[in-house]
Amino acid sequence: MSDPFYITTAIHYPNGRPHIGHAYEMIAADAIARFQRQAGRDVFFQTGTDEHGLKMVKTARDRGVEVRDLADEMSGYFRDMVGILNISCDRFIRTVEPQHYAASQAIWTAMRDAGDLYLDRYEGWYSVRDEAFYEEKELTDGEGGVRLSPQGTPVEWTAEETWFFRLSNYQQPLLDFYAANPDFIQPESRRNEVLRFVEGGLTDLSVSRTSFDWGVPIPDSPGHVMYVWVDALTNYLTGAGYPDAPNHYWPAALHLIGKDIVRFHAVYWPAFLMSAKLPLPHKVFGHGFLLNRGEKMSKSTGNVVDPIKLAELYGVDALRYFLLRDISFGQDGTFSDEAIVARANSDLANSFGNLAQRTLSFIAKNLEGALPDEGRGDPADAALLTAVGEAIDGYRSAFAELALGQALEAWMRGVFACNQYIDVQAPWALRKTDPERMHAVLGTLVRAIRDLAIAIEPVVPASAAALLAQLGQSGRGHEALGDHGWYGEQQGAGFRIAPPTPIFPRLALAEVEPA
Ligand code: ME8
């Protein structure tokens, strides 16, 4: 297949169990991957865990366990979450894999051969929580004399001999690249932040550590392991078979990451790739942060939410739909149990679910499940199919632009059009008065519901697949949208709709507070 589309999430630190922010990122990436597969793209979707670095070493020490054991255990929870949330990744990468060591050492060697690495003494501020170096001018004073990074995390003074990467050489090449590729960093606000940062001047980056050994060893430099971000970013190349068996997926189409790590992806990563003479990814999208009832989540406040628990309480698809519909993609957004329940009920249960359930169960009961006869071309029927087609077109173009919330708003316009049509046409009342017209109305609805279900499959994959299975229409791509040849074929084959079970249950607020 041609037209590759390589999409990645950040790889997540397994220094604890996954939280709702990790789930959000995987769900968004999964919906985009599924959407592109439906559009006929040759998708490769990678997620995984980022297992090296001082943060992992310190967490393991605090818990009194070996760091590799901590990584194995916690990475397992992330992998479990992939299954539970129906994340269709093609590869779950762990940075402890030998293949990833080979890729990290290969890019290192390429950067060294380019003359961009040199040994020197590093003295400066380091945040273990962010695994990041900061300059004095970026810091603020916290309580008790603690110095804080721009992310609000404590920094500590570090002094050791390290390898440096000549980031300062890449200021102009990066600025030229951003100018030539205005869509490289999205959304616009993130792009502006990056431009300001790079325009302010770049200092060389410390890229090895000698004070611990939990990392990828540096070739020909005993005692040095790679700075965790060098190996972490390289995971995207490992997934593309670099260096020994490169496949056709590199360069990536989209790195989907959170707003706090845009600098690593939009400044350091393209500089490393330029140095190693490798192609640059097409796009870095920095999504916003999830807030619990408007509050930042942290272990100390105790308001960190377990996504698995939420999925158990309200259903995977309700959670997926809520996150993508209610949060404007690219901005911060807030969630609560009430908001999840309200959104899932209004859009999925009461609008789309009810529409499908009423229509299909009526057909199962009154027409023995046979697809209704097509009408004689009443303009109202054509108008509904046009309205649904336009809603789906709006949905698809917004989705392709990563305006996921707006896409779902457009999709709902198609659902509303169907519900309005039902109210006006009142098919249940036509059963006695005008059965022929009743057939035409129900047949029109079945075609509209089928297209709306195909369109929404990337967002609520299990539910949409169940609904499409009821119509004998599983696994359809975008080319099937608006093409209703299937209807006559299915009628000809004597297809019957079985009495349906409701696909989108009406939710009630859980009595127990999620952990
Ligand atoms: O940064 N809401 O890992 P990480 C939304 N290992 N997204 C959130 C979030 C929240 N409340 N909290 C975190 C790392 N994220 C590195 C990445 S990539 C080569 C290495 C997002 O586990 C965060 O922005 O701290 C990031 O994209 C992802 O979760 C993993 O964060």
TrEMBL record:
Gene3D superfamilies: 2.170.220.10, HUPs (3.40.50.620), Isoleucyl-tRNA Synthetase, Domain 1 (1.10.730.10). Keywords: Aminoacyl-tRNA synthetase, ATP-binding, Cytoplasm, Ligase, Nucleotide-binding, Protein biosynthesis. A motif ('KMSKS' region) lies at residues 296-300. Belongs to the class-I aminoacyl-tRNA synthetase family. MetG type 2B subfamily. HAMAP family: Met_tRNA_synth_type2 (MF_01228). Is required not only for elongation of protein synthesis but also for the initiation of all mRNA translation through initiator tRNA(fMet) aminoacylation. This is Methionine--tRNA ligase. It comes from Sphingomonas hankookensis. The lineage of its organism: Bacteria, Pseudomonadati, Pseudomonadota, Alphaproteobacteria, Sphingomonadales.
